[in-house]
Write a structure and sequence with these properties.
The protein is α+β, with helices and mostly antiparallel strands. The chain is built from 12 helices and 31 strands. Strands 16, 22, 26, 27, 28, 29, 30 and 31 form an 8-stranded mixed β-sheet that branches. A hairpin with a 4-residue loop joins strand 27 and strand 28.
């Protein structure tokens, strides 16, 4: 009995292969001004191409589409590109597209080729980027070849994330992976800055050294099938940064895939590292829930409406307990809310300790103003009350955000450069938690995301150590530069913004 096309697609691995001689456009703006439309960036995953297009902003009314074929133009289809943003400094617009080869076109018995060109319709005219009349051509191949055993054996785990030779070749090219150099330290890998993406690099370095999360991904390949596009791309990235084979990679594909879902991350401009961390953890959580999801597509904005169980929730989520007490009858009411980051204000002083910042958790907030009084269900009226916040459940991975940015009386954002002294080991939070098990909860610091400079003109770096070693060494990650960290920098660090702690004794 012969297999249907869809069954063949499931049983075989197919890839869109970019030509070896493919080159991204040089002098991008010059070409945009001359030709009006240019394919700015493209990469492929399986049989899907993710691309961005730059056009000259000639008019408000415009349309950009991709015309493609897989039968040498005997037939063709049209895919509209979506507007993303306007670049005011050079008067250009950015569009994106996601082009997937239909399943019924994939035949394992023959090699196929997808060709496409880009059309820009504006002011009554059509302007094409067809790769200098050659079109953009991608082979569609089926591959079952595995990565050479010599490469797999160099990984410190039982099975490689990437076992297919074609995918291995593709991701090393897409990430522009540079092999080890004599200057490389401890087989560690740096991340190239794409123009304002140090916020992303600092978070990716910290997450890759979160052993509980990384080991979960690396050692569960036999039992789990990950379906989401973000988690699979994160696994590709994780392989490259942790395999010890490369000194530098460029995380553009992961950024582009996240950007195709959240447009703020398509552009190479500065963003807040804390916000990116929350977004990435949410997306990974959603994709982890897709292991039991049959839908082809999932809405990444529906975090609160999906299954709450995942390794992300298990590791990173804690629970606040908020207790409000009526000051008239002493009736109390408690509510619970989850958190990923413990956000702490910095006391008004040039120097303090992390314990000083934590004291804010034990401070009562009095609700006595007319617009803040609490409605007491026992008194049946709005009454003066006090509110106390405690940690009901401590997370296994504790991330602390120091509130360095605040708005002053003139409604301007200012940065607090106070030195906050934080412990490397044995951070004790039991006095801030209402849970009896918290008495045994001690934390060890393993990564710090630092912010240097001002809010609008800043730079992120990372201090990290790999706790899987008996005597872990601290390193500084400054984009692609990795070097040993001077301990004075670690202990007298007024730039610390995010602190990553892991629980020393994980409860069963």
């Amino acid at each position: 009995m012969s297999l249907s096309c869809e069954q063949q697609c499931i049983n075989g691995k197919y890839y869109l292969c970019m030509p070896d001689n493919f080159q991204y456009p040089r002098n991008l703006l010059h070409r945009v001004y001359k030709n009006l439309v240019v394919l700015e960036d493209i990469f492929t995953r399986n049989v899907t191409a993710y691309g961005t297009i730059r056009v000259n902003n000639c008019s408000f009314d415009k349309r950009v589409f991709v015309r493609y074929t897989i039968d040498q133009w005997k037939t063709f289809s049209v895919l509209n590109a979506h507007y993303i943003m306007h670049y005011a400094d050079n008067n250009t617009d950015l569009f994106q597209f996601k082009l997937t080869v239909p399943k019924d076109k994939l035949l394992s018995s023959s090699l196929l080729k997808m060709s496409f060109a880009i059309c820009y319709c504006v002011n009554g005219g059509k302007f094409w980027d067809n790769n200098y009349s050659q079109n953009y051509n991608f082979e569609i191949i089926e591959s079952s070849r595995e990565v050479p055993t010599s490469i797999l054996n160099q990984l410190s785990r039982k099975k490689s994330i990437i076992r297919d030779d074609q995918l291995y070749k593709q991701i090393t090219q897409d990430y522009h992976a540079i092999s080890n150099t004599t200057q490389q330290i401890e087989n560690l890998c740096g991340l190239k800055n794409l123009g304002g993406t140090c916020y992303m690099n600092s978070i990716l370095q910290s997450l890759s050294l979160t052993s509980l999360l990384t080991n979960y991904f690396l050692y569960n390949q036999d039992s789990l099938v990950f379906k989401g596009i973000i988690i699979n791309e994160y696994l590709n990235f994780l392989y490259l940064i942790r395999c010890g084979q490369y000194s530098t990679i460029i995380p553009a594909p992961l950024k582009q895939i996240i950007g195709h879902i959240n447009y703020a991350y398509l552009e190479n401009q500065q963003q807040d590292a804390h916000e990116f961390l929350i977004v990435l953890l949410d997306y990974l959580h959603i994709d982890l829930n897709r292991t039991q999801c049959t839908d082809e597509e999932i809405d990444y904005n529906l975090f609160g409406q999906i299954n709450k169980n995942s390794i992300i929730v298990d590791l990173f989520y804690g629970i606040y307990k908020s207790t409000i007490t009526c000051l008239q009858c002493m009736h109390t009411s408690s509510s619970y809310e989850s958190f990923v980051c413990l956000t702490l204000p910095i006391p008004s002083t040039n120097q303090c300790t992390l314990q000083d910042c934590l004291q804010s958790l034990n401070e009562d907030e009095y609700l006595i103003d007319d617009d803040s009084k609490w409605f007491c269900s026992k008194c049946q009226c709005h009454s003066n009350a006090k509110k106390r916040l405690e940690i009901h459940k401590l997370p296994k991975i504790l991330i602390i955000q120091l509130k360095r940015f605040q708005m002053n009386s003139e409604m301007r954002w200012i940065k607090d450069e106070s030195l906050v002294l934080y412990p490397e080991d044995d951070l004790d939070l039991h006095q801030y938690s209402s849970s009896p098990s918290s008495e045994q909860a001690l934390y060890t610091l393993y990564s710090i995301v630092n912010h240097n400079g001002s809010l609008n003109d800043g730079h992120y770096t990372t201090f990290s150590r790999d706790l899987s070693y008996d005597q872990p060494q601290w390193f500084e990650y400054d984009d692609e530069i990795v070097k040993y960290l001077d301990l004075d920098q670690l202990h007298l660090n007024s730039k610390a913004y995010l602190l990553f702690y892991t629980m020393q004794h994980i409860p069963e």
